[in-house]
Design goal:
Helix content: 10-25%
Strand content: 15-25%
CATH topology of the domain at 112-265: Lipocalin
Shape: globular
Number of strands: 10
Distance between the termini: 125 Å
Low-confidence stretches: 5-20, 29-38, 69-83, 282-286
CATH architecture of the domain at 112-265: Beta Barrel
Order of helices and strands: HEHHHEEEHEEEEEE
Largest sheet: 9 strands, mixed, barrel
Strand order of the largest sheet: 1-2-3-4-5-6-7-8-10
Radius of gyration: 32 Å
């Protein structure tokens, strides 16, 4: 009978080699497993959608274009839940008040010439009474913002708008044409628009405005010589709208409006809901504090 083993010193001489082999084998298995794990490629991110293009190579902008999510733009959320107001309390009043605070604190503002400062201050102070939109007037440009639907024709692009309080609107953009002098002379709310493609962007130039519209709610007035240049650029399934306002009579320099990004809506049943008739939201707005007596 062999003597019981009491310590490592009593192990047979061949045992260290056996242990060494076992450790080396285990280490090899671990390294092999680690190597296999390292060789597994991480889950690939979804490929960015390709920009659909015409046979000529320019982006296709035809279709319905919607905000990218709840309250992303204009404070509206699409879907069965209806309208969600992006303001305190989830109410329209909170939405308007918070929107006004956001605009007031936005550093991106037009730079007016000194001779128009007083007129701008007055328009801003009396905005709730003097704002053209509060009296059912059209939004005008660039205030109407990004289109909700685009229809491309061979020599023309139609831009559809809806929402807000005062407008359902369709604009006709003639491509590669000069301005219509008669329409320019009419000095309308949306002016005379012509467009052309520059690379991947549809560039729209509009002139011939009335001076009754505002650039934005804050009393940002303008003159008859205002020119608005818009750029519509599609990348993948997103459409970027940009606008630049030039008014040599009123502005020290061109003013670039904050850009807007809309997402393509692939729903085959998409439609533009009709805007309710404008019935002057608050009758008290018809009486300016400077005109009451």
């Amino acid at each position: 009978m062999s003597k019981p083993t009491k310590n490592l010193g009593d192990l047979p001489r061949s045992m260290p080699a056996v242990l060494s082999g076992m450790l080396i084998g285990a280490a090899g298995m671990l390294m092999g497993a680690t190597g296999a794990y390292a060789q597994q490629a991480p889950a690939a991110a979804p490929a960015a959608p390709q920009t659909p293009r015409t046979a000529e190579g320019r982006p296709i902008i035809h279709g319905f274009w919607i905000p990218g999510g709840p309250n992303l733009q204009n404070g509206f959320a699409s879907g069965a839940e209806g309208i969600t107001f992006a303001g305190r309390g989830g109410t329209f009043r909170g939405f308007e008040e918070d929107g006004g605070l956001i605009r007031a604190n936005d550093p991106n503002k037009p730079i007016y010439k000194p001779e128009h400062w007083e007129a701008v201050r007055q328009a801003d102070a009396l905005g709730n009474w003097e704002d053209p939109q509060n009296h059912c007037r059209p939004a005008g440009l660039p205030r109407i913002g990004a289109p909700a639907r685009i229809v491309e024709l061979p020599d023309e692009v139609l831009l559809f708008y809806n929402g807000g309080f005062t407008f359902d609107r369709v604009r006709s953009i003639k491509l590669n044409k000069p301005h219509n002098k008669t329409n320019v002379a009419l000095e309308t709310w949306y002016g005379d628009s012509v467009g052309k493609w520059e690379g991947d962007s549809l560039v729209i130039e509009t002139i011939g405005f009335t001076d009754s519209s505002w650039i934005h709610k804050n009393g940002w007035i303008h003159g008859f010589d205002m020119k608005v240049t818009e750029r519509l650029t599609r990348t993948g399934n997103q459409l970027r709208w940009e606008a630049t306002v030039e008014d040599p009579e009123y502005l020290e320099e061109p003013f670039k409006v904050n850009p807007v990004v809309r997402n393509f809506n692939p729903d085959p049943n998409a439609f533009l809901a009709e805007t309710l008739p404008c019935d002057e939201r608050d009758r008290q707005l018809t009486t300016s504090p400077t005109r009451s007596g």
